[in-house]
């Protein structure tokens, strides 16, 4: 597996597959935060200590564990543009991509597994699945966790659980999240009412790239906030319960739109398709909005000759990092808008 492989393909192997409720739930993610007992947490560790963490995990890989199949990418060996592409694919966090002499990631070939090293914690195990598959993602993350624990000693307290750099992760160290496409709830103006209700349940609603990011293209990330005092299974079960209610609400909203505003909705969908098919310059926000409309049109049967994976693919392909990666260098904002329009037009032509 080469670095070029991870950088050249917009959607990971798992993203091109269907999963349960994948018309609304784009992906499920489970992340486990862990630290090694013998070392200071990354926020306080010296460069020498951080380098030892990398060496320790490299040795684990060489010892023939199931992690041997993972590819190790060191951040100090990547260009800033390459790191940005990995962030846009959700394979690493923006924090890991920041300048650090001893940060790295272990990636599986299908990109389901991503293990970040020396991020906010020594180890962050991330597993990604298509559709609503939080239980399956937790099972795989737990397997990876068990493999590692055979070789290293985690910082663990009998009373508080796994110890982490951020107090909000202490306990299970688990963050479970789903990425959801919710245009129906936006168009029926229900989302502003739903978000506070979700927050009261100990969950948080964020944008497409997590904390501090915007909900581009009506894509929202729903995740747990509480990691202490609940088991991993309970955290995942509670999130699935809320997500299931959101799925039902989104389907009801789409049904209501089809009954009360069908011609207006169909017009919106095909106007957006027309813009994407013919534009010569387009900013990222407008592209995301139009892509959301087209995906909704596909899901509701208005558009029949375009794959529904187009939202996943083009939402990533049209990000600044990918555009510049394909261009072979830095682009000014106006140049990115022109290239984004060209890429979208060419991609839509392939569908016909």
TrEMBL record:
Class of the enzyme per the UniProt entry, highest EC level: transferase
Record: residues binding ATP: 27-31, 90, 124, 175-179, 206-211
One of the record's GO cellular component terms: extracellular space
Keyword flag Hydrolase: no
UniProt superkingdom: Bacteria
Enzyme Commission number(s) of this protein: 2.7.14.1
Functional note: Catalyzes the specific phosphorylation of arginine residues in a large number of proteins. Is part of the bacterial stress response system. Protein arginine phosphorylation has a physiologically important role and is involved in the regulation of many critical cellular processes, such as protein homeostasis, motility, competence, and stringent and stress responses, by regulating gene expression and protein activity.
Protein name: Protein-arginine kinase
The species this protein was found in: Pseudoneobacillus rhizosphaerae
Encoding gene per record: mcsB
């Amino acid at each position: 597996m080469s670095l070029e492989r991870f950088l050249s393909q917009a959607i990971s192997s798992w993203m091109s597959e269907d999963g349960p409720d994948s018309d609304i739930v784009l992906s499920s993610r489970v992340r486990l935060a862990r630290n090694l007992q013998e070392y200071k947490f990354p926020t306080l560790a010296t460069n020498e200590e951080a380098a030892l963490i990398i060496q320790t995990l490299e040795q684990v890989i060489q010892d023939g564990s199931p992690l041997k199949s993972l590819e190790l990418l060191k951040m100090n060996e990547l260009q800033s543009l390459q790191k940005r592409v990995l962030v846009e694919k959700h394979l690493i966090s923006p924090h890991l991509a920041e300048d650090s002499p001893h940060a790295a990631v272990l990636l599986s070939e299908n990109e389901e597994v991503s293990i970040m090293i020396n991020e906010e914690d020594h180890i962050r195990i991330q597993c990604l699945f298509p559709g609503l598959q939080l239980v399956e993602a937790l099972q795989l993350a737990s397997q990876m966790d068990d493999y590692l624990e055979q070789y290293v000693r985690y910082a663990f307290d009998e009373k508080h659980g796994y110890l982490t750099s951020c107090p909000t992760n202490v306990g299970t160290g688990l963050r479970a999240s789903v990425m959801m496409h919710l245009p129906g709830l936006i168009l029926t103006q229900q989302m502003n009412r739903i978000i506070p209700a979700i927050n009261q349940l100990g969950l948080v609603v964020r944008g497409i790239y997590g904390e501090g990011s915007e909900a581009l293209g009506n894509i929202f990330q729903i995740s747990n906030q509480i990691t202490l005092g609940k088991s991993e299974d309970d955290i995942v079960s509670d999130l699935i319960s809320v997500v299931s209610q959101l799925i039902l609400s989104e389907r009801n909203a789409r049904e209501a739109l089809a009954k009360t505003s069908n011609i207006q909705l169909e017009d919106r969908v095909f106007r957006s398709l027309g813009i994407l098919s013919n534009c010569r310059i387009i900013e990222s926000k407008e592209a995301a909005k139009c892509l959301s409309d087209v995906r909704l049109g596909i899901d509701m049967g208005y558009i029949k000759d375009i794959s529904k994976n187009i939202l996943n693919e083009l939402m990533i392909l049209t990000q600044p990092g990918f555009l510049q990666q394909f261009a072979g260098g830095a682009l000014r904002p106006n140049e990115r808008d022109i290239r984004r329009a060209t890429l979208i037009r060419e991609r839509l032509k392939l569908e016909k």
